[in-house]
## 1
Amino acid sequence: MPGWITNYINDPRTLTPGQAGSAFWALVYILLVFGGVSLAVVCMNWLERKILAHMQVRLGPMRVGPHGLLQPIADALKLILKEDIIPDGADRFVFWLAPLIILLAVFSVYCVIPFGPTHAITDMNIGILFMLGVSSLGVLGIVMAGWASNSHYPLIGALRSSAQMVSYEVAMGLAVVSAILMTSLNDSGTGTLSMIGIVQAQYAQHTWFIFKFFPLGLIAFFIFAVAMVAETNRAPFDLPEAESELTAGFHTEYSGLRWSLFMLGEYAAMIAVSSIAITLWLGGWMRPFPNLLSGPTWELAFSFFPTLTFFGIAGLTFYSTMRMPKHPYFRLQTIGLGAFGGVFVVIGLLLLIPSVRTGIQDIYWFVAKIAVFMYLYIWYRGTFPRYRFDQLMRVGWKILLPMGIGVLMATGIVALRAEIFDFVRQLFHA
Amino acid sequence: MQPVATAFFFYLLAGLAIASGVLVITRKNPVHSALALILTLLSQAGLYLMLYAPFVAGVQIILYVGGIMVLFLFVIMLVNIERSEKEKQFNRQWIAGVVAALALGGLFVSIYLKGRDIFPASMKPPVEIDNTQRIGEMLYSGYMFPFEIASLLLLVAIIGAVVMAKKRI
């Protein structure tokens, strides 16, 4: 074995799991995050169709597997086998490059997302800046896809999308700055841009930033939550792909595997921006009340939550298994659904092992918060009608942007209130 | 974090920047030129990172790649590209071009030869962590006036754009 490999394996940084600055652990986490996000996208595909269907009093996918559980796999197979069409007169190189740029931009964001104090690919000291910058590259992919298709609907979709994303990025940035301002409220008076540092600042200040300086944190979070939906081109801001107006918007001409890359990018982007919101305002990987309900008893109580979640899902699955039709035609599906529930029980039991239980805590709470955001995304899509383009621009520039500037100024004033009082007192005494 | 393989990454990024810079002026299709320009700006951001200036690199990506180049593409897409592809790519001012290139080349050569005398001999590499903080402190203390002047300039540009775009205000 070459010397540098042995050196590397014996390096103390490699031996500690999740140590920042160790290439080995970065590689492990890259693989874990890529696999996890892809799995989450597959789950989201099924969940979105199911939840939307139930919101509209439909059944949703029911044919492939029990309750349509195998539908995502069938869809993936179909997309891979489908003919890949490049339209005549399209700019072939740009057409080929566009989905790759979107994926590259989205998955680069995951480099700095902290799933726990030691569960991150890397920790940069410009973390949040890097995230905002890289996620803004996604719009390039959309513009390129729309232009390279050499067709009218995609071009209009791409124009709409670039205008929309550039507008909402401004409001988003202002909301983020007001949260970063809150990280500087410590003894040294220096804030941080590092994603891990932001969560640790919330721990040190004994509050999530959404509740800080009520209602300023809440308003900033609200601005970000609206801009976030617009940035990911989801309903009610899905104008770039409004199907009633533009057939499918910027990816009308894409088919097969390339089209599925766009879908993967969209869902991965949803998870990525939700993680930014969670890290900045909702305490990142922290469980509820880490300061108030501290101590070994509470630690133990909260460490059973992952197992309880999996048991809950298993219980739902078993309930559905019992309600399956008793006809012999459905026997295989019933057994399959039961086995599916069994898998959840086994995972839940595995999470009871003490070492796993303590190790998985941070990741569990982070993923649970992401899941709430994903449900909200689906809920928006099920309830809100799509905005018209001029309404979208008015919301972005005339409502969110002034609100963002106001919140930023108010946060600054409240944060420096002691200094301002002193200044005013000196003015009157002099 | 100590950077690894510094020379390799420097030549990679610098070569990428120059190659895509050449592509910017030689492509006939303006969209391809814009895409090459994006690559140039990104490799520049990488070079800033190697100079221990992560904040500048981040701002470079947000402003130039995410903001300005998207607007570039936005405008180019509205231009009739078929016509611009048939137009002549180079104008006939090659004498002026040669003079400018020679002057710039001379500057480079003189810096390469005399650089040791002009620039300070060795600077301690700045701490990477402090970069953002240092820039903030500089902007709001020593360079307050130029910073405010620059923001005023941008404000004037915004108002000018509104005045030109709107007939009745």
## 2
Amino acid sequence: MRLSRFKRITGDDWFSAITFSFAASIPLLLFLLICLLIIKSSLGFKTFGFGFIVSSSWDPLNDVYGALPFIYGTIISSLIALAIAVPLGLGCAIFLAEVTQSKVKEQVATMIDMLAAIPSVVYGLWGIFVLSPFLGGPSLLVGGVILSIMILPTITAISREVFQAVPHSLRESALALGATKWETFKLAVFGPALSGLVGAIILGLGRALGETMAVTMVIGNRANISPSLFAPAYTLASVIANEFAEATSEVNLSVLVELGLILLVITVIVNGAARFFVWKTTGHKA
Amino acid sequence: MENNWTQGLGQRKLIEKIFLSAVFASTALALVPLVLVLGYIFIKGAPALNFNFFTQLPAPVNEPGGGMGNAIIGTFIIVALSCLVGLPIGIFGGIWLALYGQGKRGFIIRYAADVLSSIPSIVIGIFAYVLIVATMKRFSAMAGGFALGIIMIPTITRTTEELVKMVPRSLYEAGLALGIPKWKVSLKIVLRTAWAGIFTGIMLSVARIMGETAPLLFTAFNSMYWNFRIDEPMASMTVQIYNYAISPFADWNAKAWAGSLVLVMLVLGTTVFVKKFSQRVYYG
């Protein structure tokens, strides 16, 4: 045996060091991303302060900016999406996990997964030429409906997983008492699954908030706050998509980055909450 | 809790019927958009597809013909670039997490990957813009590939970690018992066993980023010409579809449908094929 004051560096040490450097680049990239976004948006923040979030004027020609119409459009379109996708998605998940054991099940699951695989820009194209004319032109409502189609697979897949994590013995005890499928669901499944379902819904919300292309193509892209769902609106992601490449001034670019930062903070919080709820039921992260 | 059992049998049967029909109806309704979207893409896209679509440059307005050849090539180049960023970090990072990531460092890295995966793709695009486009002072395919690569990282990391952990411990120990060094066992036995599954994850991730548009709008931008230089703007199918879709010209709109048909076939084809194929390769 070699006697040395220093441990010999072996292949294993190299291996763990190299793989670690790749692994460590993930938090480093995240840190870099957040730092760069903060630095780039500091000019906008210095100019407009916190008033930026509550101001509703958006005029790149005169360098006057406010984020409120975009925050409004983002939140309302996502809520419309949830209002449609939650009942449908839960229905699908109940169908897949509780009601049917037939062969149709896997086919239905695959088809719903296919909804998730269709690219956003394709939904947008379909939205422009089919959905939007049908619903009376570009509006908040059309944006919400398109979003609901896009988040439905997320809500379905996670809820299904949550239902499947509920112990089978609970269902069997209800069934043994002579309960119908609805009574079994209500008594034995819904309670234990509730937290996970909340997680699934919030996860859908997170996806809707950050979705860009399809919404940009059908929401009308007008920075106003109107109580009507049939009025055109604008979202955080859409304004970045439309104006970033053509930003007219340093301040303009800076406030667009600031909008991106706002979007990042919202989605990270929402997704974090969702993961927590799903984890409480299924024992692993979504 | 209210006692259901005092309800009459008829009433219970009625509620059961309503419940089941609501579930069936919502499932059926959820599948309507899939049929509509795919149906429209096939009906509107197929007539505009021809050989030239795959080989020619975009034609100017009011000029017949032309295609998306450069955008199709561009998409593949950008995806290849993103693999250069996403795969090494994802695969090696995943291996490290599976083999050594039990402690605090592993927790932090996993947490960072989770946060990264929840950041909207357009914000990742801003990151690539600030880091690469603003520094180089021009749009480039490189920046687009970088953005898409970042989007791949969390998925690949998690897939690799999970699949490496699924490899039976006994296999790992059998390798060590033969006197093979740990790193060789990890790469040649453990990684190779898990590889089929990891490959599935990679293909699914590639299919997903192929359909990304938002991060490319202000990184790879767009181009109307053949371009194979990665430090210059490059066309991609998604950005081209977007530009054609929002244009007021019927001919360009038709091209957008044709492009969507090609894109959907690529993405859905990969996804469905890989999922079917992987069911046989997996451990069970």
